[in-house]
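Entry for 4'-phosphopantetheine complex. Fields follow.
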Amino acid sequence: MAIAIFPGSFDPITNGHVDLVERGLKMFDKVIVSVLVNPNKTPLFTVAERSAIIRRCFPSERVVVDSFRGLLVDFAREKGAKVIMRGLRAVTDFEYELQMAMMNRELFPELETVFLTPQTVYSYLSSKLVREVANLKGDISKFVPPHVEVALKEKFGNASS
Ligand code: PNS
């Protein structure tokens, strides 16, 4: 079984991430969307909230949502995954992604990093910008699934009714 890990912060998941998981499902039997537990960051959504939000995006049993702490390569080993999936939106992502891919290869040579590109309309999208626009009461309906929009409105205290 070909298992790919799709790691990230997903704070929150966006349509760009959803698009990448759907592309991954065309190549791999199982995609494990893996939320990093990062004690050095104060996220908007807790790991449990982010995981529940991600789960609702994917009816397919071939998408599994999990969280991890520590090294990504250790998590990949534990899950029997041979592939890490990452998105490349624009050339600005490349340097950071290449560094991570090379470091992960040093740590676990059998693990391949595969880069996927999202639909062009999502090439400028990031969780950070979505959070900012939502916080400033902008329209984020084009950028995230409907239940994520609701969750963001609840967080920022502008839920309707
Ligand atoms: O969505 P993000 O924040 O860009 O995802 C970054 C992530 C989670 C892929 C990266 O920070 C990571 O893999 N962290 C785990 C710690 C680790 O393995 N570090 C060494 C890899 S270079």
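NOTE: The mean pLDDT is 96.
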